[in-house]
């Protein structure tokens, strides 16, 4: 028996959805444990592409139970749209395959309105949020003003909470942010309808997961975003609103740390970032644009072009340490196919010093410049490789270099977007 946590090793968008989809074959349950619909996982099976923002990526496998934990914040409209999309494609024919925890918090219309208005008011000091209301929802959760799934499915409790909370939100929207207030009646009408539909999906995720583990079933824990966007351990304040490192799986799903056996970090063969904040290896030249075009680096949630740069081993070593990673999955190796030379950052230069550890002071990070090593590119197409042995020697050399500078073994390599364009070196569920 093994239970596996999947987390992003960079600033998100590393291809976690594809890896979760692949590892679901070996798992009995998949649990999403944090974040909201500010993250998008793109899955390609055959020629069909599916983009999910809330529902775990394992949902494309028949008979696998997919759970949304208490650590997630849920936009009911997006959730129900995803269900509709999946059913239209022939997935999720059995509703018992999907369960959401009653303690997960609901994203309300005022959360989204506040999120968008704050960013607009901040101007040049904006964080670069998706405007989906994620941060304001977590604020209310911590402030004990949140509305949970269990509240939403109970019309009486839901109405009482909206009546209590909305005046404060409307005051903020009108008097400080300068936008129109929201109508209580319209909110109740829309969200009561959501609650009626959501009721059949509500359950106790902590109980379900712990019972499964006790019975010897295998559980895959799916995270969103990446370690460098963690609210505590990321490049604060340019981070997401939840904890993205592996320890969050315990809190966001209600399980003890002794049940987490393997932690797999997902990392691109280069680096991308969406939103504001320092990015030491970012490329502002033709090469950055080339990586963006070759990797189709546009956000699956917002469509925003991603900032692109060379692989950053300093940042990855930090992510490996913070999440206790036992293995790495390297994605988008094929994006580098045509390059004659490839750079990777192994240290930072800061005011005459050489830094090999990721600084926790944002002001220091802003001044860091990358120290690069250069390796030869393989200049051949990897997309048809089905085993490690079939990879060009120079591609193998690059992977070995990534292992060396990160201090973590590589257990999976993705050479294309499809499910079958994946080379598995070892199976974490059998470790």
Query: Main beta sheet: strand number and arrangement?
Result: 10 strands, mixed
The helix fraction, in percent, is 25-40%
Q: What would the average pLDDT be, to the nearest integer?
A: 94
Provide the CATH architecture of the largest domain. Alpha-Beta Complex
Low-pLDDT windows of residues: none
CATH class of the largest domain: Alpha Beta
Report the principal-axis shape. globular
Q: Could you give the count of β-strands?
A: 20
Estimated structural class? alpha/beta
Tally of distinct domains:
2
Strand order of the largest sheet: 9-7-5-2-10-1-11-15-19-20
Number of helices: 13
What is the rounded distance between the termini? 9 Å
β-sheet strand percentage = 15-25%
CATH topology of the largest domain: Adenylosuccinate Synthetase, Chain A, domain 3
Binding site for GTP: 12-18, 40-42, 306, 332-334, 414-416
Main location: cytoplasm
Pfam families: Adenylsucc_synt (PF00709)
Function: Plays an important role in the de novo pathway of purine nucleotide biosynthesis. Catalyzes the first committed step in the biosynthesis of AMP from IMP.
